[in-house]
Amino acid sequence: MTARIDNETDLIQTYLAPLAAGAPGAFGLQDDAALISPEPGTDIVISTDPVRAGVHFLESHRAGDIAWKALAVNISDLAAKGAKPLAYTMALAFPDAPERAWMQSFADGLRAAQTEFGCHLIGGDTDRTSGPLSVSITAFGSVPQGRMVQRTTAKAGDHIFVTGTLGDAALGLALHRDPAFLSRELSSGNRAFLSGRYLRPSPRVALAPLLLSCASASLDVSDGLIKDLGRLAAAAKAGVAIRFAGLPLSPPARHMISAAPQFTERIVAGGDDYEILFAVPPGRLETMRGIALAIPVQITEIGRLEAGGGVTLLDASGQAMHLGGGGYDHFSRVAR
Amino acid sequence: MTARIDNETDLIQTYLAPLAAGAPGAFGLQDDAALISPEPGTDIVISTDPVRAGVHFLESHRAGDIAWKALAVNISDLAAKGAKPLAYTMALAFPDAPERAWMQSFADGLRAAQTEFGCHLIGGDTDRTSGPLSVSITAFGSVPQGRMVQRTTAKAGDHIFVTGTLGDAALGLALHRDPAFLSRELSSGNRAFLSGRYLRPSPRVALAPLLLSCASASLDVSDGLIKDLGRLAAAAKAGVAIRFAGLPLSPPARHMISAAPQFTERIVAGGDDYEILFAVPPGRLETMRGIALAIPVQITEIGRLEAGGGVTLLDASGQAMHLGGGGYDHFSRVAR
Question: Which alpha helices (DSSP H) does chain A contain, by range?
Fold first, then answer.
């Protein structure tokens, strides 16, 4: 027999209130509103990025993974702004009364994520929907007053960096859709790595001090490098040429695209990376390199903004590579 | 021919960015995050209350009314906490690419509401869903530090007040579901009044100064007086007896329930009032009455918290009235 939760108070008090324990502005999730008491001299940075079954995750995903990712995509936006995570609110809409085991796994995933990212649940809402499961998180972080790192403030001449490795999540999604595919080519360890990068992204919250002191602009890579780099460059009224061979790729990703070159484009256009793409003016490069040594996040320079426009991707012989897509667009496609 | 918007940038820049004009933390809706710069000595109060077609509104509602209500339900939560509205973020999920005329009407409704309530759009997200239209607003307000009026802090002996009139919205919904019903009994002016109270609730933001200086506890009436009063009383470990004849009813509501007494229960259990229910300790009564004279909101005392528990509703002869329901619960029912 499957136990389902048919009472909102039970759902909140049994599964969600423990995630708010110790957060003073949460009022035990018993009020209609939540509270943030900002430290003097700080601004509050806000990200709101709902996820929905069929668009941002698959119904078949485990509840703990859904919860982790729902929070991670918001914390990633905060991290890209140089913000320190503080708290989040969450609105859940269920197509059916959730099963207890599912809800416990969801709460466990959320606890693991909020512990990792350093924030607490402080409020929200639960109700029912005739549509798919949706998890709408709004996350709050703090930055020193007036110091939020914007997306649109880079300039021609700035150097472009990206954290971590690119394309792992997009390749992980491809494996999820067709688990048998490439099973001969890819070791189980490599498959687990790519799948993990898709299901449980790691927002780069450790990068905040570096961004705050050195970055002229920053955003997270959620729709693919080409599309997000295009946004950063366009706002700077600049262009950029990137060598594919110079992009940071994980060993499993290199392995997969050498076995199946048709997946190469996903490295730069697949989305879901949740790495941070940022610009550094020449005068801040040396300081940035010093801070980078103290931060446990891999950082790779991938190009430099120049007069002109557009993003060009170059192959090993210096020729422009043709891309069919151009990044993932949640608005024009309902399901991948 | 119906023009549809199939491009997210077009949707944001044409219809939403104008709602963010002049708000410094909105960055023209071109960043992934929004910013609030809190005034020194203030806390930020947060409400997050998504609305969804089929649960909180009907597909047949006009876009401008949907927009108004989506914002109003959140501002009402802020108002009940004594907060001054500052800003909001909004995540929209569309089942189909929206029509331009629909989107214009939606933006117009939002503009009217944010002007009325005194806040701006500062960020959000748009995407597509396989489910019904959903509008997820998170609203932000400010209160003097440490002064947010909570729900759970009333005490036995406190006097209970409610703003405005009760039941209008629930009766308005009944008329929406069956427009022909009662058309002989109710004038078109009365029908328009009740319908307007359902479609375009007026959050009581003007009440903030009174709540901050005199209320021991407060919440908005969104699930019906009985249910919400039950929450306030239960948290105070107290009970309360209310005379039905002493409740504030509008003339159209009195007219409708005298013509159709079967709707009487909706006055106290129908929900969607968005009035404010608050408790005042005896020692603050005189101050409260003074402030009330300066505030353009009707305030009615409806009872007093006593030792014991539960909410009792009394008829004209002092007998307890029996209620079938007990307030509206979005969690256990998908559509009304």
Answer: 8-10, 17-20, 63-80, 100-117, 168-177, 188-199, 208-214, 225-235, 251-259, 264-269, 285-293
C-beta atoms of B138 and A335 within 8 A:
no
Q: Cα distance from A88 to chain B (closest Cα, Å)?
A: 10
Q: What is the pLDDT along chain A (336 residues), one digit of tens a residue?
A: 579 998 999 999 999 999 999 998 999 999 999 999 999 999 999 999 999 998 888 888 999 999 999 999 999 999 999 999 999 999 999 999 999 999 999 999 999 999 999 999 999 999 999 999 999 999 999 999 999 999 999 999 999 999 999 999 999 999 888 777 666 778 999 999 999 999 999 999 999 999 999 999 999 999 999 999 999 999 999 999 999 999 999 999 999 999 889 899 999 999 999 999 999 999 999 999 999 999 999 999 999 999 988 999 999 899 998 776 544 444 543 333
The tokens for B21 are: 């004009």
Selecting from A36, A54, A334 the residue whose C-beta is nearest the C-beta of B46 gives A36
**What pTM did the predictor assign?**
0.93
Task: Please tell me which of the candidates B45, B49, B146 has its beta carbon nearest to residue A125.
Answer: B49
CB pairs under 8 A between A and B: 224
Handedness of CA B24, B27, B29, B32 (dihedral sign): negative
- Give the mutation candidate from B48, B227, B237 for the A interface (greatest A CB count, under 10 A): B48
The position carrying tokens 């307890």 is B320
Closest chain B residue by Cα to residue A5: B332
Cβ of B130 within 8 Å of Cβ of A55? The answer is yes
